[in-house]
Design brief:
Shape: globular
Structural class: alpha+beta
Number of strands: 55
Radius of gyration: 30 Å
CATH class of the largest domain: Alpha Beta
Number of domains: 4
Largest sheet: 8 strands, antiparallel
Helix content: 10-25%
CATH architecture of the largest domain: Alpha-Beta Barrel
CATH topology of the largest domain: TIM Barrel
Length: 819
């Protein structure tokens, strides 16, 4: 279709409805969009079927503008050729949008903004559509087996979805809603300084972006509605036509390359052991070795001299050796996290570190004073965190402020009265303690439980360039953007995450590397070969660590048109051949790779090492060669039954090994963990301690029981149940009337627990009350009072004496069984 014919066609198609006119203002060979006179989208017509694919009753302004936090819809619109002029009378604004038909998709580009008020954001949609069986959350697709509808940002500033201040594993460019799906996009003005609550910090400072992404003009989106059979073809066509990132391996797009899902070994290679690492990888048929902690610092990305005496050149020597064996190397970092020993922090902190809650000293201090009196009560929330003690200790921040070039750590801030920072450590992180005068600027440094600081959006660019320099000089081919949520620290939402990835790739000599991430973002989708997350150290049981997340994410990755990975597992002295048969079979069922932490001397520490490495090679080769039938894959997707693999010249067969069940009857969720110290009750593969079971007593409705009802799965025959009941130290009150009931057996514990206390029973008649420091406070014998559980599901009831509608303290229970 020529452009002239297209313009004529799209301007003359007018249908009258009552007193208003609905105009087909844009169409191509697959679909047409209809607006009413007020700019509301009233129809998305699929030409093949003649169906309106908008949810019934949907009528929404094609786009809205946001000013001072208020959204304004289109008042009227007119068209001149390919330019659509949208008027917003309430704020005296007009936005000009260039619209184009690009064969199998349409584009919308903002080319001019005129407004009497500052416009902070322009929002496209949300468009509520009917196809919704499958959702590409990050890339922005809603589809079923017949039709796919997508909305894609065509540059970094053009964001898919809506902004949230917290992390999410996948984006929200497409979301399932009642009756269908929602597609959304937006562009924000990033030219002004803002104060925002983000991620893990109140009153964080977001500095302006210092390039063209600061302005709304230039935002560009693609809209498409195509048969689902053409979805991948159309997406690839858009990416190529619009000059979006198109990352390849051996000249094959990473989104369809089998190699994108290949497994890797995570090993701490160095100039002294690289040959040993290669030897282990070759025995397992693994073609990528990835260093899990290569950097001594993050920010400028310095290396450890002992492992790499010639710096980046030493890593290059390792990669050259590996390349001769057909193996590539990679390295891990936490995206934009900055360690406190990095030159960006010490001895003089960089001006670009993210600040929060800026105020002034209300009293001069000497170089030795350990209390700071601050002026502005309004910034208290940036410094004082009343819930700090209630969070998982892993995420507990260290707290620090910056005054000039000095960093000062503080232990806590006053909760009432004047804002005072107490128990300060002066000259922290190698900075110099000096005197400061009243009125000097004080700012909280945004930090994190990993004891790191963060760059603002502009310093972040330099960090990405630093990392690209390392990858270029070391000739590395794999990276994981772990901690990509750190981009939120800049105050620019997920834009911050995507910008780090883009700047790094823009500065790679060869951008065709295999990258993954802990989260998938809208623009970052173009760079990522897969998502890979699932940590092995959260459970002693090889099979259970984050199993539900690993399985859930497989479908999400597939619907997001991404190759799949099963996350990370650890091969150590306890790992068995059966463990490997289980995980490799599960991966084969999902066409997913897996990443193993493994030592170069695994053959010395694990007696089954040779069998383990051979098993990995056998399964990985069969999967990469596509030897599994769909029927076999379906069997292998059952995580509780696993098989051995036999292979002949033409195909493979599965041999049943065994079925198993997770201890406690549930798999570990992403936010689940076992917080019980091993000094209280030790966990082992033969007798694992369960995840935390938590309960808070509170009456919600009159007469409704307050007890927790838990399902506990016993994997073997009748066994004795051991347990630990804890009242966390952070609790503000004691707990009594505590009881457990298993089957018909109910035991009321004759103890009152103070914060930090716990009760332990090891499957006998002895009930012991301990203090936090492991001192026995009381011990009683209750005849014939131990609990037993039978094979399969068991119901356990737990409660304590409550206070009615006022919530009691949260209590934690862990279980273990013995024969």
């Amino acid at each position: 279709m020529t452009k002239i014919f297209w313009i004529l066609l799209s301007t003359i198609c007018i249908t009258t409805f009552g007193d208003s006119q609905d105009k087909i203002f844009l169409e191509n060979g697959f679909f047409s969009l209809t607006l009413d006179n007020q700019g509301k989208l009233t129809e998305l017509l699929e030409k093949r079927t003649g169906k309106n694919l908008l949810i019934q009753g949907y009528s929404k302004s094609l786009l809205t503008v946001q000013s001072d936090g208020v959204n304004y819809s289109i008042s009227s619109w007119e068209r001149a050729g390919e330019i659509l002029k949208l008027k917003f009378n309430e704020i005296d604004a007009e936005i000009s949008v260039n619209i184009n038909n690009e064969n199998n998709y349409l584009t919308f580009e903002i080319i001019k903004v005129e407004s009497g008020k500052f416009i902070e954001k322009v929002i496209w949609g949300p468009y509520h559509v009917l196809p919704s069986e499958k959702i590409g959350q990050s890339i922005g697709i809603a589809y079923d087996d017949n039709t796919a509808i997508g909305f894609m940002g065509l540059n970094l500033k053009s964001r898919g979805g809506f902004e949230i201040a917290t992390r999410e594993r996948f984006g929200n460019a497409a979301k399932k809603i009642d009756g269908g799906a929602s597609l959304t996009g937006f562009v924000s003005d990033r030219s002004r300084f803002r104060t925002v609550d983000n991620w893990e910090q109140k009153l964080g400072q977001a500095v302006p972006v210092n390039d063209g992404d600061a302005e709304i003009v230039g935002a560009r989106f693609a809209f498409y509605c195509v048969p689902s059979s053409k979805l991948m073809e159309v997406v690839e066509n858009i990416i190529i036509n619009e000059d979006l990132p198109y990352i390849k391996t051996k000249n094959i797009w990473n989104k369809v390359s089998k190699y994108s899902s290949s497994s890797k070994f995570i090993m701490s290679y160095n100039v002294n052991n690289i040959e040993s690492c290669i030897d282990v990888a070759e025995k397992a048929g693994i073609t990528s070795i990835y260093h899990g902690g290569i950097f001594k610092t993050w920010g400028t990305f310095m290396l450890d001299d002992k492992d790499f005496p010639n710096g980046y050149q030493s890593v290059r020597e390792c990669s050259d050796i590996a390349e001769k064996h057909g193996i590539n190397l990679g390295a891990h970092t936490l995206t934009n996290f900055i360690t406190t020993n990095d030159p960006l922090v010490t001895p003089i902190p960089d001006p670009g570190l993210v600040l929060a809650g800026t105020t002034k000293l209300n009293k001069s201090i000497s170089a030795n004073d350990n209390e700071l009196l601050l002026q502005d009560e309004a910034v208290r929330s940036a410094y004082y965190e009343p819930n700090l003690e209630k969070v998982n200790p892993r995420w507990r921040e260290h707290t620090a402020v910056r005054i000039g070039d000095e960093i000062i750590e503080y232990s806590f801030a006053t909760a009432e009265g004047k804002l005072v920072l107490k128990e300060c450590k002066r000259g922290a992180f190698g900075t110099k303690a000096v005197k400061h005068k009243k009125g000097e600027k004080v700012s909280r440094l945004m930090s994190h439980g990993y004891k790191v600081f963060f760059p603002d959006i502009n310093l972040q660019d330099q960090m990405a360039k630093n990392l690209a320099k390392f990858f270029n000089e070391a000739n590395l081919k794999r990276i994981s953007f772990d901690g990509i949520e750190g981009g939120l620290a800049s105050g620019h939402g997920r834009y911050g995450s995507d910008r780090f990835v883009k700047v790094l790739f823009d500065h790679l000599k060869d951008p065709n590397i295999v990258a993954n991430s802990s989260d998938v973002t809208h623009f970052g989708w173009h760079y990522l070969a897969n998502e890979s997350w699932g940590e092995p150290w959260t459970s002693d049981n090889f099979r259970e660590a984050h199993l539900d997340h690993r399985l859930d994410v497989q479908q999400a990755l597939k619907e997001d048109l991404l190759p799949r990975k099963m996350g990370q597992f650890s091969i150590n002295a306890k790992t068995t051949k059966k463990d490997i048969e289980w995980v490799m079979g599960l991966c084969a069922g999902y066409d997913a790779g897996v990443d193993f932490y493994i030592s170069p001397n695994i053959e010395e520490i694990n007696k089954e090492a040779n069998s383990i490495l051979s098993e990995i090679k056998k399964w990985e080769n069969a999967r990469m060669e596509g030897l599994f039938t769909e029927a076999q894959k379906e069997k292998l997707r059952d995580p509780y039954t696993f098989y051995g693999l036999e292979q002949n010249e033409e195909d493979v067969s599965l041999v049943f090994i065994e079925s198993w069940a997770p201890e406690g009857g549930r798999t570990q969720g992403e936010d689940d963990f076992n917080s019980l110290p091993s000094s209280v009750l030790k966990s082992s593969p033969e007798a694992p301690v369960s995840l935390d079971y938590k309960h808070t007593n509170m009456t919600t409705e009159p007469g409704q029981p307050t007890a927790a009802i838990w399902e506990y799965f016993c994997a073997g025959p009748k066994q004795k149940l051991q347990f630990v009941i804890r009242l966390p130290k952070v609790s503000k009150e004691s707990a009594k009337g505590i009881y457990l009931k298993v089957g018909a057996t109910k035991i009321v514990m004759p103890f009152t627990l103070e914060p930090g206390d716990f009760i332990i029973n090891k499957g006998n008649d002895i009930y012991t009350h301990f203090s936090e420091d492991l001192q026995i406070k009381n011990e009683v014998i209750i005849a014939n009072s131990y609990f037993t559980v039978t094979e399969g599901q068991n119901i356990i009831e737990f409660d304590y004496q409550g206070k009615g509608r006022d919530a009691g303290p949260e209590m934690i229970v862990n279980f273990r069984t013995i024969k």
